[in-house]
Task: structure prediction
Amino acid sequence: MNGLIKKLRRSQRFLAGFTLLEVLVVVLIIAVLAAIAAPGWNALMNRQRVNVVNEQAVQLIRQAQNDARRTHTPRLIVFDPNATVPRAAIVPLQRDFNGNVLNPIVDLTTINAWTTLGNNEVKDGALEFSTTPADGQLVFNGNGFVDRLTTNAIGNDPSISRTPESATSRVFVFKVRQRNTTAQTNRCVIVRTILGATDTDQGTRCEI
Result:
């Protein structure tokens, strides 16, 4: 009889559940683990967003080049240097009978077909990005090659220089990284030659 009573008491203790102290200890442990893991998780997500933005930049540059070849019409791809979230647009350009571009200087306020990079998951100011040339404009001619407007000057005015940082090694660069991080976190898209060959790179190699 006594043995049966002891078994009943043990089962009642098992069914009683957790005490308030036990629950508090578990909650505290979860909170501590979350506090430790959160910065690393945020950094991982930000790196992923940087990679997505860079890949989309590659796709848009190649799309502009392919559109120029397909239509035999010059295409401008422009990355908005003043945006708080990276965005780009592809704009058709027209030429006169002499082959000169009629609208070489594009007013960014007139562009409606912007593509926001990052799948709408990038917060304002979360990323740092820049281009070379600094105005963010890259022109492909009707053959899909980089137009002289990108490597030489805008229109027929040689005083408005758009010479990139190193004409022998790169023609155009789009560079992006997490804000307040070092050059080691750079991701970039590089158009290396006037043929329009596009490549990606990372780290300090984006700075060269």
